[in-house]
Amino acid sequence: MFKRWWPSFLGALLVAAAFIWVYVFFPVMAKLPADYEQNYYFSGTVQVLNSATNQLNPAMPVNVTRALKASGLEDDVLLLDQKITFTHAQAGTELPFGSEEVYGLDRTTRANVAGYGDISRTGQFTFPADTQKQDYPFWSATANQSLTAKFVKEETYQGLTVYVFQVDQKNINLGTYANTGIPQSGDFLINIKVEPVSGVPVYSDTTTTLKISPAPSVSMPIFISTIAYTSETIDEMVSTAESTQSLIMWASVYAFWIVVGVGIVFIGIGFFRNRAA
């Protein structure tokens, strides 16, 4: 009997193995790695308030580095150090606009996990794999709260199908300015293009405007930064998105259906062998 049915047994094992791979092993492999490290490079301009004239200084060219490096795991939550550095694009001197934070991330969803990192955060740190055409809350270190990245459209960018998201929120309360008691607020405009299978952001530009209100109905900008991915970072992110998309599709879709198909063929062979006998 076994000689007649062994193809069906083998086919059933192949089908079971395919499902176990997709629903058990692949999700573990798809997590952010414990040694995650990535640098993003931006260029643009910054304007700051001249306290002597109460006017913004002329825009200065800047280069910005966003350095991300995993520093450990706590209960499978990834601790990620982020260091943002501004330098003058011509002089090369570091400017006092940078920041350092420690995030605690869900390795699967890439969302902030409350209670981990240097402060408790909400929303996404970055887009998840299998990004959907929906709005996502994103944590902003400058705003110290989550802002909404709204889905705008689908388009083709650098040969990739991407989803375009935009954060456009104005007059976000930022407390008071430099212990003066003067109310401070911020406007945030961010455009992001994401390859949806991998969740890799292949383009990003950000305009941040910080304002003070020294008197009712008076709003005075004190800081404006406009930065975007450098062409080198765009090229790197497009390449990363292409390779990651291909890996995900082969590991979770194409290989799955190939193995399931082969398994079904073997199951059918077993049935036909049994009937013929």
TrEMBL record:
Instruction: Please give the start and end residues of each transmembrane region.
Output: 247-272
Entry's InterPro entries? PorA
Q: Could you tell me which Pfam families the record lists for this protein?
A: PorA
Keywords, comma-separated and alphabetical = Membrane, Transmembrane, Transmembrane helix
Supply the name of the protein. Answer: DUF3068 domain-containing protein
Organism of derivation: Dehalococcoides mccartyi (strain ATCC BAA-2266 / KCTC 15142 / 195)
